[in-house]
Design brief:
alpha/beta, Rossmann fold, 2 domains, 3-stranded antiparallel beta sheet, 12 strands, globular, disordered C terminus
Length: 219
């Protein structure tokens, strides 16, 4: 019988994060589970310091949950087994690694180390799948706003089209990728994509996941 510490985001999956996390009681029915609300944790590093060495960690949430976790946790704490159980809406990371919603938690240690980064306004962030600024962020913000309206369905394609047609104001920006600078006026958005070899399950001999990073600027 294994011991698991489950960190869940109650806001994931349109507010169904806790209910999704509790499904682990059935999936891991022969193990001991301890549930913690991630929004109550002020510091993941402090949390890890108090965590027993014998417990396995499960991150339960969506892409945003996973992204925030890797950005707010020191990699030195990733020497224990860390698992992921998808409870988000889009679950892009889950699809990238070939898993399905409802699948048992799977180990993600090799996917959350040595990640590429992006820096904007002096703030550097790691990213797993991709990261976007400008109209990409606008679409997320507008989607969150619409989601609060009862009965309102969120169509990100429609939001993006309306944004490009005038609802989103483009900005001037300087974009530097691997030392190469793009100077542009009225750039609508910048998106960085990490294309991973783990899509077809390839890894290096040391267990790391090779990747290439592509960048695009939308004018």
């Amino acid at each position: 019988m294994a011991d698991y510490t489950v960190l869940y985001n109650p806001l994931a999956g349109n507010g169904r994060g806790e209910a999704e996390a509790k499904k682990l009681v059935r999936i891991l029915n022969n193990d001991t589970l301890h549930f913690y609300n991630m929004t109550d944790i002020e510091s993941y590093n402090d949390f890890f310091e108090r965590l027993s060495d014998s417990t396995n960690l499960v991150i339960c949430g969506g892409d945003g949950t996973l992204n925030r976790f890797v950005n707010e946790t020191d990699e030195k704490y990733f020497d224990r087994d860390i698992y992921y159980y998808a409870a988000g809406t889009g679950n892009d990371f889950l699809l990238d690694v070939g898993e399905k919603k409802g699948s048992a938690p799977f180990k993600i240690n090799k996917y959350i180390v040595n990640l590429p980064t992006v820096t904007i306004s002096g703030i550097t962030s790691k990213f797993i799948n991709g990261i976007g600024y400008g109209i990409d962020g606008y679409c997320c913000e507008e989607g969150d706003r619409l989601r609060k309206i009862p009965g309102k369905k969120v169509n990100y394609a429609a939001i993006a089209i309306k944004g490009l047609l005038g609802k989103y104001n483009a900005v001037n920006a300087k974009v530097t990728v691997d030392g190469k600078q793009i100077d542009g006026e009225t750039i609508s958005g910048v998106t960085e994509y990490r294309v991973n070899a783990y899509i077809n399950k390839k890894t290096e001999k040391d267990g790391s996941v090779p990747s290439e990073v592509f960048s695009s600027a939308v004018r």
